[in-house]
Amino acid sequence: MVRKGTVDGFGPLFEPVSIGGVQMQNRIAMAPIRTGGLVNPDGSLTQRCIDYYLERARGGAGLIITGCTRVENTVERLPGPTPPGFEAMASYGELAESLHHYGAKVFVQLTAGLGRVLPPDFIDTVNTPVSSSVLPVFWKGSIMTRELTADEIQAIVQAFGEVAGRLARVGVDGIELHGHEGYLFDQFATAVWNRRTDRYGGSVEGRLRFAVEVLNAVKKEAGADFPVVYQFGLKHYMSGRSPGPWSGILPGESGEEAGRDVMEGLEMARHLEKAGFDALQIDAGCFESRYWAHPPVYQEHACMVDLAAKTKAVVDVPVIAVGRLDIPEAAEDVLARRQADIIALGRGLLADPHWPMKVRSGGRSRIRPCIGCHYCLRRISQDRKPLSCAVNPACGRERLQSAGYVRSVKNVMVIGGGIGGMEAARTVASRGHHVELYETASQIGGHLLPAAVPTPRGSPSCAGWR
Ligand SMILES: Cc1cc2nc3c(=O)[nH]c(=O)nc-3n(C[C@H](O)[C@H](O)[C@H](O)COP(=O)(O)O)c2cc1C
Ligand code: SF4
Question: In testing the pocket of ligand 2, which one of 345, 374, 459, 461 has its CB within 8 Å of the most ligand atoms?
Fold first, then answer.
């Protein structure tokens, strides 16, 4: 394990770093997490949503990347919140102002759309799903997408520029484009899904033209110095043997890559840097191999860092690594070994929004760990409930559950060390009472104990949209 002392003595996580002209106070970013149920129908953020991000900024994250947001609803018509228009901007302004108060920067993640991976319960509400080419819909192969026309692509490009311009004017610091996981940008970027013969297909340059045109539109509307990050998977881990749901290549398995492989990923990285992107976030996987894009408990910590390191070797712009980096020593190691410039934490910050502060102040043992159960994902996708976390019920309800200190201290006895008992004891103790927790079993934890045990692949805990 490499550990290096740094300028302020807090370790490599707490060195400042810049994306374009935007300086982060440390190298810890919050990875984009879709805030299902916390966005109003007009695309504005609810106060609950702002409070949720605010808690992660208060906990010390240097950059908050918001969950993905759509920019248009004319070409790809979907149910759900509309893209954020003028009326929604006040909430984004409030978000930026609140996060800046704690020294955090905010980038809004924007998506081109779903294309062939629109969820099963949307399929019947959409006339004809769209994509880069005519493709079977992932969840219902009997339905085919239709190929977007060049005019429709232009309409999406323009919408990106308009939304980004508005966000920049209300104080948002930058944009991340969601080019990952087989969504619409990725359907354009990947040969197996892009069979176009016009200028948006063919070579890597042609397949990335859509993303690069979006970059140029954003810079035109938001300013040349407004940073734009591109997030993509360097490798898809899609099995050539049996392409289909849950057929991805797992660690230790060999298999012919049916999607993007590393060599082409690196060519993309070089091209994106040359085109003017200010940073690259390196992931892996797609819907066919979601064990990478959404690594469950049986994936190693830092499971995608090798891909970030390969990218860092070929570009000069900052590289953001992601994927089970919530063990502080693992995150520090990535930076100390110069495998990436910034580490992004997704679920680690749902489970414990104060992870950065605890690491900085010597409180690592008090970090509440993410158990990799994917209840958070299930809530927002299958259950369509507001975002929350199995081990942190205050997640998504920060204001409601914020504990005020009490005037008269009581002695409280909590019977039962399961999830409810532990949370009751923790909450009561955090308000200043004396608590004793009683449990007959030899270990506290209740249902969390089996929930934290690895599950076989394809099980409901990692089933995503299913
Ligand atoms: C509930 C949930 C929602 C997510 N939403 C998004 C999203 O909107 N955009 C995105 O690029 N990734 C999304 N992700 C993936 C995360 O950004 C991250 O890449 C992944 O969780 C792995 O990082 P972690 O191990 O630190 O959680 C989501 C993940 C979860 C669990
Ligand atoms: S719900 Fe489970 S996977 Fe999601 S953040 Fe919480 S502990 Fe981690």
Answer: 374
Residues with CB under 6 A from ligand 1: 31-34, 67-68, 109, 178, 180, 231, 283, 294-295, 322-325, 345-348, 376-377, 380
Residue 405 annotated in active site? no
pLDDT digits (tens, 9 = 90+) for 187-232: 999 999 999 999 999 999 999 999 999 999 999 999 999 999 999 9
**How far away, in angstroms, is 112 Cα from ligand 1 center?**
17
Q: 51: phi > 0 → left, psi -120 to 50 → alpha, else beta; which?
A: alpha
The residue length of the chain stands at 466
Q: Quick check: 267 pLDDT over 60?
A: yes
Does the pTM exceed 0.85? Answer: yes
Domains and CATH numbers, the chain: 12-370 (3.20.20.70), 393-466 (no CATH)
Q: Which of 52, 53, 92, 183 does the annotation list as catalytic?
A: 183
